[in-house]
Amino acid sequence: MDIKYDLSSYTRVLKLASTPSWEEFSRIALIAGAGILLIGIVGFLIFTVMSFLPGGV
């Protein structure tokens, strides 16, 4: 393991990284929130269906 090479790789990545603009951040947050909401709805629907089936939860 070459520590000097690893540190130079990490610093190169940090120099290339930039803070997202507010528009980009809000778009990413909206898409992530929609994904979380969709997974929650699917889980709730599965729970509801399993509750009505015989031998369910």
UniProtKB/TrEMBL annotation:
The keyword Zinc does not apply. The keyword ATP-binding does not apply. It is a single-pass membrane protein. One of its GO terms (molecular function) is protein transmembrane transporter activity. Its main location: membrane. The chain crosses the membrane at residues 28-53. It is found in: Cell membrane; Endomembrane system. Keywords: Cell membrane, Membrane, Protein transport, Translocation, Transmembrane, Transmembrane helix, Transport. InterPro entries: Prot_translocase_SecE_dom_sf (IPR023391), Translocase_Sec61-g (IPR008158), Translocase_SecE/Sec61-g (IPR001901). GO terms for biological process: intracellular protein transmembrane transport; protein secretion; protein targeting. GO terms for cellular component: endomembrane system; plasma membrane. Essential subunit of the Sec protein translocation channel SecYEG. Clamps together the 2 halves of SecY. May contact the channel plug during translocation. Belongs to the SecE/SEC61-gamma family. Component of the Sec protein translocase complex. Heterotrimer consisting of SecY (alpha), SecG (beta) and SecE (gamma) subunits. The heterotrimers can form oligomers, although 1 heterotrimer is thought to be able to translocate proteins. Interacts with the ribosome. May interact with SecDF, and other proteins may be involved. This is Protein translocase subunit SecE. The lineage of its organism: Archaea, Methanobacteriati, Methanobacteriota, Stenosarchaea group, Halobacteria.
